[in-house]
## 1
Amino acid sequence: MALDALSDVSDEALLVLYANGDPWAARALTLRLTPRLLGFAAWMLADRTEAEDVTQEAMLRLWRMAPDWRQGEAKVATWLYRVASNLCLDRLRKSRPRGLDEVAEPEDAAPGVVARLIGADRMLALDKALAALPDRQRQAVVLRHIEGLTNPEIAAVMDIGVEAVESLVARGKKGLTALLSGRRAELGFEDGD
Amino acid sequence: MQETDLDHLFATARAGRPGPSAGLTARIMADADAVQAGFKPAPIPAGRRRWPGWITAMGGNGVLAGLATAALAGLWLGFAQPAPVLTLTLTMREAFAADADPWAIELIPSLDAFGLEG
């Protein structure tokens, strides 16, 4: 089945086609899902190389489990976010511990990957503020407000209840507001932006 | 920083999502091809291995199902004769038993009513 003909096919159906040997299904899934995974991993890790590694690893796990995929049990995207989340959290645990104190002086920190790619001061500020949040809060905020997942979808990704998701998102946004409060004028929000 | 400021930042972040590099896409596709090459068709149970050859030669399972349905339908028609056929058979049998003139046999007696009405 050609790539154009697959544009309306669901992720789950594409995965079944891939498992059955369709040569175009993997390409369609890659083009559809990789940007989302990479964006999520980049916000989580603030490192382009690590984000690419996580994205490739998550997709590799998807390919491997394709023959065993049970239709109707989960969405492919949700499953992938879950795998990528776990991979990101593993890497964060192995790297330095994060905390608010660490980002108290953002000028000393290296620019994050997304901020570098977008080249905007606001994104740089958001990147650093997100990096200062506890991992689970950052994960919930990125999934909700940048990746656009619903609270039930995030609950499935994080394996927690919807109320816990709401709490994490609320605390995360409160933390971001506090972290960025002193930079409102600097970021150009005084003109009613 | 206000709630609307944060929303603005999130909207900018959504719009500026970084795209994957060509290298990353190529690596992921190479992984996909390598994994897909290792997939093997499900093994067929020993008892079913004799059939696939001639089933395929007949045109596959779909054709086989059609043939089976047609055969059963023919068998049913043979045993359960429709009423008009049964009437015709009885008329012919009676006519030949009575040694009647073959040209005078009324094969469809019900047509007489139409003839009377003109």
Note: Chain A has a mean pLDDT of 84.
## 2
Amino acid sequence: MDTNKKLLKSQSLKDLLGKLTQSGKTVYAPKRKGDQVDFQPITSSEELAQNYVQTVQSPKSAVFPRVEELFRFRNNSDGVKLTERDVKTLPDMVLFGVRPCDAAGLQPLRAIFTWDYQDALFKSRMEKVTVISLACQSADEYCFCTSVGLSPGDPTGSDILLTKLSSGDFLAEIVTDQGKSLADSMTELFLPAPADAKPATLADVPIKFNHEELSKKLASLFDRTEVWVGQSLRCLGCGACAFVCPACACFDIQDEGTTHDGVRLRCWDSCGCSLFTLHTSGHNPREVQSQRWRQRVMHKFSYMPERLNVFGCVGCGRCSRACPVDMNLKEHLTAVMEVKA
Amino acid sequence: MSDANVYLPYLMRIDNITDEAPGVKTFKLAFQNPAEAEEFDFKAGQFGEYSLFGEGESTFCIASSPTRKGYIECTFRQAGRVTNALANLEIGDTIGFRGPYGNIFPIEDWKGKSLLFIAGGIALPPMRCLIWNCLDLRDWFKDVSIIYGAKTVADLVYKHELDEWSKRPDVKLITTVDPGGETPDWKGDIGFVPTVLDKVAPSSKDTIAIVCGPPIMIKFTFPVLTKLGFEPDVVYTTLENRMKCGIGKCGRCNVGKYFVCKDGPVFTYSLLKELPPEY
Amino acid sequence: MDDLRKKAKELLESKQAGVVIGYGNGTGDRVRAIFAQSPADADKLVFDDRCLQNLTVYLSKSEVRKIGKPAVVVTLPGLRTILQLASEKQVAENDIIVLGISPEGALLDLPGFKAITDYVASANLDYTDAEMRNLDEVLKLSLDERFQFWNDELSRCIKCYACRQACSLCYCSRCTVECNQPQWIAVPSHDLGDFEWHVMRAMHLAGRCVNCGDCARACPVDIPINLINHLLAQVTFDSFGLRSGTSPEADYALSTFRPDDKEDFIR
């Protein structure tokens, strides 16, 4: 990737956020509330969370909200009228301070929402989002970005990638044209980078498995029920992992209102839920949790790479941190690699 | 319909309602917008998402033939929230339709061959589209045979069309009902579809077989076809699975790495054999 | 811990139990539910003050039951759950083996429901001081302030249903929110959908919640959802004198009518 390197002085962070907010953009950034750090709209750099490894939820709601109106319907004496969303009213957003894994997480979403049929709402939101990410200086035992082809300093998916320097200032890598126009509009903040700029040490995330080999191995493990049962016995079948995951995009469609006046909504759903695949007849192709756990793993690490050329996981570890029963994905995948033929 | 919103349905007017069997209805639907009617095209095998605004969407195949322009038909059985609400609609009411989705029966590849259609119960609708499509192109094919059965005489759908097909000299039609499902004046066969298929033993030479039915019927029909000499790659069927978006995004209908809404609903028996039991 | 491992091994070796549901070490300093099926597995069992998850939730999981007769490690909330499930005809005495653990960490001898009932009767079921403080923090707010408090907390709710799935008393194979004829509770996670869900669930648990706290621990966005259940448990006790999980034959307060009930609307 062709990058352009600039210097953002640490005291310029305040001005940067000020300018972004004033330009009418909504800035989403990690903000602390009690023990948790999560994405919230912010207006000043003082609100930025410090000293954390990862937010609880991913920033995917910026492009794939929890609840989204698809269209409105009205049925009266004049007949049925459908009113679409005006995509021009969607907000311009900046995702600030996301981790490189989260920036990369936009890729699997894009792959799904533009597979043959173009999801216009998703695409409009993507066009209105600028991603300014922050490379990771610390990781925890749940992170495994390096096992899925990413790293704490990977620019994939970012418009601008900031890396903290040992001086406390930031190296700003301008990754995309969108990032370039932003930096060019604030040249007093994005200064030329000195040749000897020394990034602070990035987080060490040891590689636990090779994702291409994992994908190959999974193709032969569908029928190994004992593997899937053993891994998922403690799984409760909630949707926490799917909802905090930056790459999960499964959704439900629900009508609300009456037949005369209402709205069709899209909302998050999870393949882990017991009734996800239930037919109206009562037949359920995935009626036990081990089948649903297998689906989660296969979809992300086998089906998506094969059909869409992208992995459905960025190794952020959120699923494992959020899981009430410690379903540690890194551990499960490492165990899959060790399953004997 | 706007190109921009793939979830926005066409508005369709119900022009006719036929009561096919207890709990089973056929809707004949016209596009409210004549320009859309003009532009709309589909191929046999494809399905759509039919909606009642305020209740939701339901997945049915397009049961009319693509050779007949200006309208589409769907046949459904009352089973859940949306189908029960649809069953209460009247001629003149408006519903939504998104489609056509899914893959198609490769009719072009079947030119010069004989066709054997095998269907059971409520699974005749996807076949009916295909049968009419093929009959409208009758001289493409050699022999055309249809074996169709239902639980009882009352459960046979498209009774009017069964009558039409039975009167055509260029179609061999065998209808059957399950043992015990016959009425005193029933003139057709009595027996489960796979049993009747075995008895009739149609030739597999240069013949394409298309099978649609409830899972139990399919399960017992495939071995009979194999016994009769049909290779798996000339046997076609359709799959159903729980759907929402119909366009490969909501993550619900996949059978292994294949999505019923994109890689199906039409599958050959040879591909079906590779699929994991997730449907 | 040694007694527990010894007992677990004994149960598995003699095949009295097909699986021992207990705690084992997890990621970092977490513990997680483990399903010991061999004496070697039993060595992985641990018990200390990290062990809070109410493991009776796995008694309603078909894939766990398929392994064999379960022996389950439980503390007081789990023991109450077993009695409550028994009173709701979800578990029979011979179905399970109970490995009760006292607050001091000792293995209890609880051979059947009578022993468990006696044990629970002797236990202190009042809320701890810390729990009362949390409850009081909310109760001291005016109704308007309380509504604001819950609006703030529930604004984070993503309707992941971790609270429901973690709860041992939420065992319905088709939850009310999953009924669509009619759609009683809105599915999407907007303000109304979130509120309807939590209010409905609280009502369905009124007088049944055993104060295990799993719902709040399971919540990925740290909503103290158990406070609602605690309050309703208190209200149910004050109104009907009944506490959940105290007898395997208790009638559920909110669905039982007696001719001598003080309310006269039904006469």
Note: Residues 163 and 217 of chain C are 8 Å apart (CA to CA).
